[in-house]
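Supplementary Methods. Inverse-folding protocol.

Structures were first reduced to a discrete structure-token string of length 263. This string, shown here, constituted the complete conditioning input.
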């Protein structure tokens, strides 16, 4: 069965399957599910008995084997750690890899094969991660002119009876309360800012301005803010807030290093 660059291959003939798998190693992603056991022979020896598992071998020769539950793999091998070979052992399909530097060997034996696919997967996109609202607040603290020129921060996370104020500061014409939102502003956000202002007027006997910071403001939110003498400050976070770009391979390497440290 073919779908785009994804191919499910026949499991009827074990010798033919071995040939297809060996020719695909390093060229395509191999996805194999079935019942298998795993033996690791190295500085730490381990044996995992028969169970239903999912084995994924990526084009960079990284190996991940998962069971039916859990996030962490049951067995793994980092990219380019060593060659991978498939062979037939009586009625079993065997995958063997030896780590070149350490001479450690991982053997996975499939007594039953449920599904095998080859996938010429392509993914060159890097993951872009934006900070949460607490990170945005910290960024505004170090870049207060984004709120307005001359703005000075007094406190962050200032506790009130109606919740913590993100930023309390001073502008050229008096004190300002700033509510920061990562997502588009909502009526609830505008109402919360109004409650903060009422708290300062009623409890602390101070006249303060209120500014709601968000990437976008629907018309009904702008109308509510105007009716209550509150202000909107539009900040496109995806343009001004520093992004952290992490390649998927780097994340995988971090995981392998973490597992190595655990050993």
């Amino acid at each position: 069965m073919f779908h785009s660059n994804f191919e499910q291959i026949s499991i009827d003939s074990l010798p033919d399957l071995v040939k297809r798998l060996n020719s695909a190693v390093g060229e395509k992603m191999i996805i194999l599910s079935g019942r298998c056991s795993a033996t690791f022979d190295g500085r730490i020896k381990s044996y995992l008995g028969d169970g239903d598992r999912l084995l994924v071998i990526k084009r960079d020769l990284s190996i991940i084997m998962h069971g039916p539950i859990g996030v962490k793999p049951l067995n793994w091998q980092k990219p380019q750690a060593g060659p991978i070979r498939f062979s037939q052992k009586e009625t079993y399909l065997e995958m063997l890899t030896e780590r070149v530097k350490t001479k450690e060997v991982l053997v996975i034996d499939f007594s039953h094969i449920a599904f095998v696919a080859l996938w010429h997967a392509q993914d060159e996109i890097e993951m872009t991660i934006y900070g949460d609202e607490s990170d945005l607040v910290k960024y505004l603290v170090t870049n207060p002119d984004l709120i307005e020129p001359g703005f000075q921060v007094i406190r962050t996370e200032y506790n009130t009876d109606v919740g913590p104020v993100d930023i309390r500061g001073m502008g050229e014409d008096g004190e300002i309360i700033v509510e920061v939102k990562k997502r588009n502003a909502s009526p609830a956000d505008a109402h919360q800012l109004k409650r903060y202002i009422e708290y300062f007027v009623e409890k602390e006997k101070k006249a303060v301005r209120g500014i709601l910071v968000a990437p976008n403001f629907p018309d009904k939110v702008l109308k509510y803010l105007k009716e209550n003498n509150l202000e909107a400050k539009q900040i496109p976070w995806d343009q001004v807030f520093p992004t952290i770009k992490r390649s998927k391979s780097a994340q995988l390497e971090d995981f392998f290093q973490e597992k190595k440290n655990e050993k």
